[in-house]
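Hey Z.,

So I finally got round to the methionine sulfoxide thing we talked about over coffee. Here's the setup:
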Amino acid sequence: MHYNIAENKINEIINSEISDKLQKIVDFLYNNFDHYSWIGIYIAQGDHLVLGPWNGEQATVHTKIPFGKGICGSAAATGKTEIIPDVNDDTRYLSCFLSTNSEIVVPIKRDNEIIAEIDIDSNKKNAFSNEDKIFLEKIADMLKEHI
Ligand code: SME
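And the result:
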């Protein structure tokens, strides 16, 4: 076998294992927290966020979001968690689902660089508390070495 074919194959295996792990975490959060109505992990690629593993009733059209755009892009630009109690009140909001009322976006940072984000929509207004923020920031910190 050619070394470069083997290298590509090994790279594919490494990447698939990473996305399997992320998918399991997304599924776990989706299945165990009622107020998490849609959850996705966006991966930073250059100056964009690209949607990776997700779970929810519907797919989103926002699979590639530039840094600075929407709530996701704002959190990527500032490096700070965004909690939006009512998405209808925030002009930055990029609408995905009519059912969404509130949203939390938690950046995943490694060495001060944004490498990914956890994005959660809720069908309830004001669904995300400081407890969600602390919890999800902890998860983001746990994930930073696995992305
Ligand atoms: N609402 C996000 C876009 C992603 S969807 O929620 C899945 C935003 O404003 O950036």
